[in-house]
């Protein structure tokens, strides 16, 4: 799939279950609103290891939560 990037062919491929899940996740839960709410208290990375991006961390958190909920 990485070889197909930026060739224009990706518009013709069938959406995967992952694509559908992420699209549904974005429609149910707008991350821009959550990022705006969490951003003032999220670590800025002053000194020490730089933090992971806020949007990425929110996605990881929700995916972890949903995967444990779906497999239970």
Features:
3 helices, extended, mainly alpha, single chain, 53% helix
Number of helices: 3
Approximate shape = extended
- Summed over residues and divided by their number, the pLDDT gives a mean of 82
Helix content: 40-55%
Give me the secondary-structure category: mainly alpha
List the uncertain runs. none
| Straight-line N-to-C gap | 31 Å
* Major beta sheet summary: none
- Based on CA atoms alone, the radius of gyration comes out at 16 Å
SSE run:
HHH
Strand content: under 5%
Q: Report the strand count.
A: 0
Describe this structure in words.
This protein has helices at 17-28, 31-38, 54-71. The protein has a domain at 17-41 and 52-72. It has 72 residues and is mostly helical. The mean pLDDT is 82. Helix 2 packs across helix 3 (54-71).
Short description:
The chain is mainly alpha-helical and 72 residues long.
Topology of this structure?
Blueprint: H1 17-28, H2 31-38, H3 54-71
